[in-house]
Sequence to fold (422 residues):
Amino acid sequence: MISAVKPQPLPPEQRIVITGIGLTAPNGNCLTDFREALLAGVSGVSEYEIRYFGKTLAGICEFDGRRHQTRKDARRGTRAGSIGAYCANESVVDSGVDWENVDKDRVGIYIGVTEHGNVETENEIYEISNFDYDTKFWSHHHNPRTVANNPAGEIAINMGITGPHYTIGAACAAGNAGLIQGAQQLRLGECDLAIAGGVSESIHTFGIFAGFASQGALASHDDPQRASRPFDVNRNGIVVAEGGCLYLLERLSDAQARQAKIYGELVGYAMNTDATDFVLPNPERQSQCIRIALERAGLVADQIDIVSTHATGTASGDTLECAAIRDVFGESENTLINNAKSFIGHSMGAAGSLELAGNLPAFEDGVCHATINIDELDPECALDGLVQNQPREIGRPADYILNNSFGMLGINSVCIIKRFTG
Fold:
């Protein structure tokens, strides 16, 4: 193993750790259930039908929305807001922080999204179509539902948080981008607690299904649970999914002061841009993003135990990401590679944060969950260390997890989480 050049150690007040996780996925509504489903090979993809587009497949979440939100608030708000409120509250509960005595002025909310407002706009156009498109029947909730800061703002109102809140529009790199933004704001002293990650309500808009279908990029399969199949030679597109995963982030000094459980430490991250195409990824820029994150963490590729891939199940996207991974990890003998979209579909703005969460328990159990639904591996996607169909034992607790998350218009994000050892 080649030794990395270590950066200067950061003081505890600049080290950022994860102390709480709240999530909903198509196959689990908390980290324990989500992880169990990943290790057991349980898919969350099912049949779905949506207005105008008709029958299709989707990853659908079934969480208890009334646990943290009233029916009235759910009706006046958005599905993304409901997912966000659920995940944010669950992350706080999970963290064990004394929420009643937290200064809410010092809590920041940083929510990654792919898109927002399409669901509500489509619904409202449909509603006024029943009244000959008379706009006097247009919902007075339209503007607060569709402003870009909505999901973060709904969380703020729901939880009484009076610190900064905003959403980060970063396409399908948004889950990582939310995490990165939260860490940066903590380091700048803009907040003392950060609720950060990503959410998605994508399955509730017919436009996203129609858009992917027009690109020839929407997955189909006789068995819904086998439809999402990254790296398989017969993959035929994306399964659209909803979901969310929000983390409670703290400075290490604050987490240690209250003796918090620490899931992991964010030790490296990077974001860059392809600047080459609206949709087609650029593997050179993707591998550059990975290398920047490794350099910032003071690591070399061989030290990464698990790479969580972005791979969506499209022919070109998977192949190009594999080229980027091969460029960085081609000589690594210790790195395992997996994919969570094969279980849940593509949860868009939530994808990066959800996929990272599914791997974090490897810091304790030393197991890398598989990529399922690989019947015949595409030779162009052959990677040393790719974990296919069955979980693989690492033989020890994982030390480092690298999480890829890339998006349309060429936005790339990478996060590296370290097992906390003190």
The chain has a mean pLDDT of 96. Residues 252 and 422 are 9 Å apart (CA to CA).
